[in-house]
Amino acid sequence: MPDYKSKPKDSNKTFAELVRPVMGQDTKLIIVGNVMNQADAEDALNYTDLVTAGRAQIINASFSAKVVAGEDDKIIKRCRLRKKKVKY
Length: 88
Description:
This protein has helices at 15-19, 38-44, 54-59, 63-68; strands spanning 30-32, 50-52.
């Protein structure tokens, strides 16, 4: 899965860095992609105005609250599902 620092093959800039100059000053830029902990969220803010943590929020419903509280060590970073055989 691409992350927030992904770059087109023919560029040394991220997608966010390429889009920013084309947008109006009043338009906020939001990015998503592989933001899985507090460090990722803080780094992503170097490229954008808003950061979305899709997968991290699904895995850990209190992801945002833990980032704001500085509780990165309590963030669940992986979720493995067991395949369970169902008998009909």
